[in-house]
């Protein structure tokens, strides 16, 4: 049954038009001039234990140190170790980790990996604003600590073409009680190394068999190559997550529009969002009981821009 009624629609902007990724100068500032430490070039290496100045809540536990790994991982308790291309999944192991890009990276002949702790007021305020926008249920979140790790122009292990590189970043934030992680993807041009093992993106609690794949997963079937052009917070190349709870919570990235629509469960509707100057093709994925009441709320997911 199709009913005409005034409807408030919350759109989760998962897929964004692939026109541009986040610009390099929009990443959290990194490099020697910003006080970063550069990880020694190589493969399968790590920073060694880094004692952090604030405890970081992560998936139900609290950590006071971490490791930055060449292979695109920030690990807790222990370093990630060697990239094992015989495993079906690297992220589903027993290492507690944040993995913006878990792949077989080699910086012997190019690229650099930078990291630092940060308590600079301006950067913390800017990052906190982004968290509040992505997670409206935390209107008073104010970070007191940040950790920034950046993989800049990193090639794959034994790559025959060192111009094929990835640049991405992970930013950890906490106010002492809650924690959030931001992944920034400036450029992803490779996802497999010489053995053909695919990179992975996500999180692992390190216990209880809980891990979370960002892409692909049950709510989005996209390639890792798409990550610079898509988002869960309505900004291409930016992905945000709440990480202190026992499960991962994604940023809502919601925009709100209203109007009169012909809506039927599991149907597709098309309308214009003025702020985007484009049409959106929307498929209904979940809804409350549809009735003729005004101002019902229907959650839909944007499939693509047309």
From TrEMBL:
GO terms for biological process: cell-matrix adhesion. Pfam families: NIDO. Residues 1-21 form the signal peptide. Residues 100-246 form the NIDO domain. PROSITE patterns: NIDO. Keywords: Signal. This is NIDO domain-containing protein.
């Amino acid at each position: 049954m199709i009913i005409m009624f005034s409807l408030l629609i919350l759109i989760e902007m998962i897929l964004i038009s692939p026109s541009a990724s986040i610009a390099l100068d929009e990443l959290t500032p990194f490099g020697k001039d910003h006080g970063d430490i550069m990880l020694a070039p190589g493969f399968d290496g790590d920073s060694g234990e880094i004692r952090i100045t604030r405890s970081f809540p992560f998936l139900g536990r609290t950590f006071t140190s971490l490791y930055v790994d060449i292979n695109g991982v920030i690990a807790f308790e222990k370093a990630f170790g060697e990239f094992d291309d015989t495993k079906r999944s690297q992220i589903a192991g027993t290492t507690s980790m944040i993995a913006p890009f878990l792949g077989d990276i080699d910086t012997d002949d190019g690229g650099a990996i930078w990291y630092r702790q940060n308590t600079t007021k301006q950067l913390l305020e800017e990052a906190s604003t982004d968290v509040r926008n992505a997670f409206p249920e935390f209107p008073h979140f104010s970070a007191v600590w940040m950790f920034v790790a950046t993989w800049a122009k990193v090639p794959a292990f034994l790559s025959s073409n060192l111009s094929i590189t990835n640049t991405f970043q992970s930013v950890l934030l906490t106010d002492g009680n809650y924690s959030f992680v931001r992944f920034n993807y400036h450029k992803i041009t490779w996802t497999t190394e010489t053995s053909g093992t695919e990179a992975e993106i996500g999180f692992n609690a390190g216990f209880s068999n809980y891990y979370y794949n960002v892409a692909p997963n049950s709510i989005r079937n996209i390639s890792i190559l798409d990550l610079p052009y898509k988002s869960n917070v309505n900004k291409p190349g930016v992905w945000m997550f709440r990480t202190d709870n026992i499960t991962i919570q994604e940023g809502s990235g919601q925009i709100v529009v209203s109007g009169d629509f012909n809506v039927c469960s599991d149907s597709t509707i098309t309308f214009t969002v003025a702020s985007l100057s484009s049409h959106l093709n929307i498929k209904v994925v979940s809804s409350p009981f549809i009735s003729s009441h005004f101002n019902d709320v229907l959650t839909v997911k944007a499939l693509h821009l047309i």
